[in-house]
Amino acid sequence: MTDRVSIVEVGPRDGLQNEPYTIPTEVKVELIDRLSATGLPVIEATSFVSAPAIPQLADAEDVYSRIERRAGVRYPVLVPNLKGYERARAVGAEEIAVFTAASEAFNQKNINCSIAESMERFKPVVERARADGVRVRGYVSTVLGCPYQGEVPVSEVVRVAEALDQAGCAEISLGDTIGVGTPAKARAVIETVAKSIPVERLAVHFHDTYGQALANIHACIEAGIRTVDSSVAGLGGCPYARGATGNVATEDVVYMLQGLGLDCGVDLKALAQVGDWIAGELGRPRSRTGQAILKRN
Ligand SMILES: CC(C)(COP(=O)([O-])OP(=O)([O-])OC[C@H]1O[C@@H](n2cnc3c(N)ncnc32)[C@H](O)[C@@H]1OP(=O)([O-])[O-])[C@@H](O)C(=O)NCCC(=O)NCCSC(=O)C[C@@](C)(O)CC(=O)[O-]
Q1: Which of 10, 13, 48, 49 to mutate to test the pocket of ligand 1 (most atoms within 8 A of CB)?
Q2: pLDDT (tens digit, 9 = 90+) per residue, 88-121?
Q3: Ligand 1: does its nearest atom lie under 6 Å from the Cβ of 238?
Q4: In this structure, CATH architecture of domain 6-296
Q5: Distance between alpha carbon 89 and the CA centroid of its chain, in Å?
Q6: Positions marked catalytic
């Protein structure tokens, strides 16, 4: 098992999509450019979804066209359907993510269709992407609980993850959308899904509603996970998951990984400065690690 962990920075997309006031495009572009200078290998830049559904990311074309593409950094974007795929490709996106959930109720609210319908919608998107040489990640939301239906059976998580895998997704990110998971459950889900999809192709995506995200990530790393989603300054919250707080903060994840001797290639001090800046811009709290690093320095 490799000693390297890949962080997928989702701050500019998941972190911003639910902010209540319209963030200027130049702030979004500056956020991505500052993040790419910290050593982060993957930065999810924006979403090509419907503007009434997610008004905050209605400037996706503008953001994507204006970012500085740093060599060695990947900039995936979220795409819900063929229309989103075409919009993303028109501005040069080379990597996409499709998204569905392990809970029917959440999927209906989020993308206005059933899980089965979402799979039908994604099939042509993934086919086109593969033909175009575009890498596709698949997200499964609500793997540890749903804001509408509560418990989500692990068998459903496996079924949806396998469907995304069979459709041709290169990587599957398992999301605790409302941050209700605890370490033993998180690890059990990974171990169960990993029976049919190699753990090297799985990622974890934790929100920190109950303060469990780092512990969950640690448990999943012990189960072999080496790709972790996180958001600078812990930005985030899902528009369709009331009360869910932000994603786990990237600064906290990097600090923990360094303590575990796992390399992620990120300059923590530089990242803390980005976190401090964007938290100030949005009037949001700093991450714990970010504050500590900046005080120490
Ligand atoms: C999926 C749809 C489009 C279905 O929305 P719909 O209303 O069912 O779709 P539709 O095909 O009937 O289209 C309705 C209108 O939207 C337009 N439209 C349709 N598609 C697009 C597009 N791509 N870009 C721009 N416009 C679009 C379409 O052209 C039409 O416009 P009209 O004819 O009425 O003027 C909508 O519900 C949607 O965009 N939802 C986005 C939801 C979202 O982004 N949620 C947050 C991301 S998921 C998440 O955060 C979880 C995750 C990934 O982080 C992991 C975790 O934490 O668990």
Answers
A1: 49
A2: 999 999 999 999 999 999 999 999 999 999 999 9
A3: yes
A4: Alpha-Beta Barrel (3.20)
A5: 20
A6: 238
